[in-house]
Automatic annotation (TrEMBL):
Membership in a protein family: Belongs to the TsuA/YedE (TC 9.B.102) family.
Subcellular location: Cell inner membrane
Family matches, as InterPro entries: Sulf_transp_TsuA/YedE
Keywords: Cell inner membrane, Cell membrane, Membrane, Transmembrane, Transmembrane helix, Transport
Name of the protein described by the UniProt record: YeeE/YedE family protein
Transmembrane region(s): 25-44, 50-71, 91-112, 124-151, 158-177, 197-221, 242-262, 317-336, 348-372, 378-399
Major localization class: membrane
Membrane topology: Multi-pass membrane protein
Species annotation: Lentibacillus juripiscarius
Amino acid sequence: MNVQPIDNTKPPKRQKDTELNRPQLPLIIGGLVVGAVLLVYLMVTQTIVQPLLLVIGLLLGYTLFHARFGFTSAFRRMMSVGNGQAVRSHLVMLAVAVTLFAPILAFGYSFFGDGVSGYVSPVGVSLFVGAFMFGVGMQLGGGCASGTLYAVGGGRSVMFVTLLFFIVGSTIGAYHLPFWTEDLPAFEPVSLATSTGLGYTGAWVLSIGLFALIAWITLVVERKKRPPRMAPKPSANGWKRIFRGSWPLFAAAVVLAVLNALTLMTRGAPWGITSAFALWGSKVAQFFGIDVASWGYWQGANAAVLDASIFADSTTVLNFGVILGAFLASAAGGLFKLSRFSGKNAAASVFGGLLMGYGARLAFGCNIGAYFGGIASFSLHGYIWGVMALAGTFLALYLRPMFGLSVPKPKDSFC
């Protein structure tokens, strides 16, 4: 009988880099070329603000994809199994944001000497209904506003359907908005800084206290439910992690807050996404002969936005940057691949996109403009948006199985 010798040597330790796919160099080069062409075009045809916003948008998309920084999944994990890790990363992001926004809003000037203003919107029926609709829609559509953009950049095919109907829903919402805002009850906008007499310092202290309270609540829920922890994702070592592999959620939270503050200082308003969707859809409708200019939404200051090129719209430029940044991040990680999707997933994307688009218009923004930008601007409507979106998420947990979508279970592990 032949006896095989025993090999007592230890295998070499596997490095984290080996867990990553190889960079897709042709895609990276192509993405950089497209970005350079668009940057030059904006420099030639627009003011200096637009190319700067393209770069900021690219960094936003790169950060979102690298960290898989989500709002949809964070809300779903919290409401389904009680895991609040991602929600606490939101709170870190918001804490850094209010710390940066407070002096900027108090000072009142941007990099270019123009005034700055946060997102402070009315509290009324449209906010409650719209945020709830958005909460349902993002759980069916597979992503929020920022998630849709970075998923499209990463090649997730079903999200192209979500984006298309997001635009359709936002356009219909723009058409119906006067009914929701003028014919239904609403209170005036409430700022924790200027409406309460606290000032920006007092509003900052109150905001930090609220974030700490919410974080404590998520920890209490976790101790009671004992949910699974989020699984770590493959990542490179050292400085290579900047370009390859997953970023820690809390690091991404800080970066996103800094980039939002830079956006505020560059264009005079925080980061937003969905107003561009209403513009794109209205432009298409106008092309087919619909009298979009007569809509109440496109009256006043918005009339000039509708008449101008989409490249003159700062939100559009930011959106293009986010998609391109996510594309470059996915290619750098060797992850860009157009995925297949089923009919049920496509149906969920249609309904989800419509609900998000319509809801975002009613609620004065999405998870970025209303939730992130609103709370960072010390607006009461941002907190209400978050509560109603969580309520919509809870309902959507019962709707997702109807479309073949999974719902996290207490014993599941997830990333």
